Amino acid sequence: MHIPLSLLPILGSLAQASPILPRASSWPNAPFTASGRDIKNSLNETVVYAGVNWPGAADVMIPEGLQYQSVSSIMSKIKDLGMNVIRLTYAIELVDDIYSGVDSSLKAAFIQALGETNGTKVLNQVLSSNPSFTENTTRLEVFDAIAAEADTQLIYVHLDNHVSKGEWCCGHDDGNAWFGDTYFNVANWKRGLAYMSSHAKSWPAFTSMSLRNELRTTSNGTGDNWVSWYENMVPAADGINAANPAPLIFFSGLNYDTQLATIVNGKDIGNGTTFSLDNYSYKDKIVWELHNYANSATNCNDIKGSLRNQGYNAMEGSASAVNKAPVVLTEFGFDQNTGSSSVYAQCIKEYLTTLPGGPGGWMQWVISGSYYIREGAQDKDETWGLLNHDWSDWRNQTASDYTKSFVEKTLV
Ligand SMILES: *[C@@H]1O[C@H](CO)[C@@H](O)[C@H](O)[C@H]1NC(C)=O
Ligand SMILES: *[C@@H]1O[C@H](CO)[C@@H](O)[C@H](O)[C@H]1NC(C)=O
Ligand SMILES: *[C@@H]1O[C@H](CO)[C@@H](O)[C@H](O)[C@H]1NC(C)=O
Ligand SMILES: *[C@@H]1O[C@H](CO)[C@@H](O)[C@H](O)[C@H]1NC(C)=O
Ligand SMILES: *[C@@H]1O[C@H](CO)[C@@H](O)[C@H](O)[C@H]1NC(C)=O
Ligand SMILES: *[C@@H]1O[C@H](CO)[C@@H](O)[C@H](O)[C@H]1NC(C)=O
Ligand SMILES: *[C@@H]1O[C@H](CO)[C@@H](O)[C@H](O)[C@H]1NC(C)=O
């Protein structure tokens, strides 16, 4: 929504009298489509994502932070940065439990993951911070509540399948690494994607979803090849699109989602087949996603070169990419107390905001100041979290200023 500058003071005083401005009823102008390197809304306006990851895929399988703050106050913090999207992560196990009739209430989920004593304590904190929930609210209803609040605050929801078994991600030996890995049952994964795609039809703010976060080799070194990628990702995308034709579908690459060149450039996947957008009836729904954590890089040109080589050439005006689609950097991030002035952080910002043809979209890792449980440690602090431990304020003003200015330069 473009507000003429001359109206801003009036809106400002209105906002003081009544904090809830009338919403633009047509927002979010979905469904979105992919048109060349750009995401377009239904008005054919270019939409660029600038947002943050809100994790909900670990052991409890409930979006983090709700023992400390309400859904609306967390969303307001995200809004304060000027962001327009959240990457909301979930585990396939959440859907498996629904199919198998496991009690998915908040009470059961917290006690299961944190034990009787701590689970009960944290549950009570969640209910006290979020009085609209009860112990019988289901995990999926918490996702619904977040999606509803996102709609209220005009923030798009990008759903991300982060893992199969709910746990901290990602390692080669965590069982969630590659199709067929210990916990990565392919049939359940496809069922889970289709389920969430269909379920999210009731969320007005829902605009896109991913196939899978950070594919990688398993502990025995298998996986991470394009033929197997192709044979799994394409039918899974077909399933999402059949269940709900509206969302954009994000295709991630190999090696922790750092490599997409083979697909973007339409090269032989290893058996004589090449990926071509033209083969898909929903080609205008396909978006590429990449991650970058080259945090220790000392030369910005190295970071730029590797991003470009791994798929960002699809974002260039008249470039070499055969399969030209939008590329979104769905993860990058840094320690909030040391990282915002690094070559890495400054370079990512510069690169994405100066791409030929306009800024590219991104979602920073991560909003969470702490986790219910991470790798066995309860109430685990997250030094990469934009928010502090109890999610009440920014962890580091310099770092949140970096993010705020990145948003401003992206949503020009
Ligand atoms: C959408 O906008 C682009 C320019 O950004 C224009 O080339 C195209 O024709 C428009 N498409 C429609 C359907 O209006
Ligand atoms: C329960 O919570 C307390 C305080 O947060 C923590 O010290 C303790 O380790 C937790 N118990 C378990 C089993 O993790
Ligand atoms: C939750 O469900 C149980 C079992 O149906 C019921 O006994 C209990 O009163 C419910 N709690 C709330 C807060 O509704
Ligand atoms: C390697 O791991 C995968 C996934 O866990 C498994 O399917 C495969 O059988 C294993 N291969 C070998 C040679 O152990
Ligand atoms: C290559 O592998 C994919 C995935 O299994 C398959 O769909 C395709 O037909 C194969 N291409 C050739 C030429 O065998
Ligand atoms: C996709 O399209 C390309 C070019 O149009 C073609 O060469 C390729 O074989 C197709 N692949 C499949 C799996 O249909
Ligand atoms: C906040 O981040 C900046 C930039 O990395 C750093 O210089 C500063 O020491 C950090 N502040 C605190 C309190 O850690």
Automatic annotation (TrEMBL):
GO terms for molecular function: hydrolase activity, hydrolyzing O-glycosyl compounds. The keyword Hydrolase applies. Residues 1-17 form the signal peptide. The keyword Hydrolase applies. GO terms for biological process: polysaccharide catabolic process. Keywords: Glycosidase, Hydrolase, Signal. Residues 68-351 form the Glycoside hydrolase family domain. Belongs to the glycosyl hydrolase 5 (cellulase A) family. This is Glycoside hydrolase family 5 protein. It comes from Aureobasidium subglaciale (strain EXF-2481) (Aureobasidium pullulans var. subglaciale).
